[in-house]
Every structure is written in C-alpha cells, then in structure tokens.
Design goal:
This protein is an all-alpha fold. 77% of the residues lie in helices and 0% in strands. It has 2 domains: 11-62 and 69-93, no CATH class; 94-147, no CATH class. The longest helix is centred in the first third of the chain and has 32 residues, at 2-33.
Length: 147
C-alpha cells in the first residue's frame, strides 16, 4: 500500500511542478495578447479542446447521469479564478513566492475540508501534526516571500 501511495504522491508532485510552468506560459501569453483575461480564455479554450478530444476518444466510458449538488457545477469558475490570478500575480510575486502562498492556502483549506468532510471528502480529524505541518508550510511560504 505504501508503494502505491508513493507513486500517487510522485504523480501529484509532478503535476504540482507543472503549475508554475503553466503560470509562466500564461504570463507570456498575456504579454502577447495584451490582456490577462484573454490569456486565461485562450488557456481554458485549449484545455477544453484537449478534454473534448479525450471525451471523444473514451466514448465508451458513459454512465447514467446523476444529480449533482449545485456547488459541484461551479468548479470551473474556481479554475478560471486561479488561472487568471496566477497570470496577474506571477509578475508581482515571482513563481516561488506565489506558489508557496498557494500551497500554504491549499493545505490550510484542505485540512478544514478534511476535518468537516466538506464537498464530498471523507471526514479526517484535524490533528496536532497537521497543525504543525500547516504552520511550518506557512512559515516557509513567508520566508520564500522575503527577498
């Protein structure tokens, strides 16, 4: 079981490593298009095209649609906010400080989500070790912000 978890962790780590690359690419796109909103739109459009191709290629994976809660439908708005936010903040903070702050915010929110079992996650109680990890990550993010 530990080996599988390490594999999934490594995949997630690699995905996380792509985020500052994407932010830099989107900033260059903003420079070329003259607008952070146009750059975000192009990024989302190309992502939508890629997902459309994937859906068409995996047509056999159909299931009966189920009713989802209202909040399940608005995740795309959060994604658009994050992409546009990185386009706006990357030049102001730099990649390391921006993503240190993002990761610290993600971990703090994730710990609360786990504790209360929000948005479909199982309840995982908040612990002292999680609190220490969040404080250390936040401290590290603030250290990265210092130049």
């Amino acid at each position: 079981m530990l080996r599988a978890q390490l594999l999934w962790f490594a995949i997630a780590f690699g995905m996380g490593a792509l985020l500052p690359v994407q932010a830099g690419m989107n900033v260059r796109l903003r420079d070329a298009l003259g607008s952070p909103y146009r750059a975000s739109l192009v990024s989302f459009f190309l992502g939508t095209v890629a997902l459309l191709v994937l859906v068409l290629l995996t047509r056999g994976e159909t299931a009966e649609p189920k009713q989802a809660p209202w909040w399940a439908w608005v995740g795309g708005f959060i994604g658009a906010t994050l992409v546009t936010g990185t386009v706006l903040l990357t030049p102001r903070l730099g990649a390391a400080a921006l993503f240190a702050a993002l990761v610290a915010g993600q971990l703090a929110a994730a710990a609360l989500i786990d504790h209360f079992g929000l948005v479909g996650y199982p309840e995982l109680p908040f612990s002292a070790s999680r609190a220490v990890g969040i404080v250390l990550l936040l401290a590290g993010a603030l250290l990265v912000l210092r130049r």
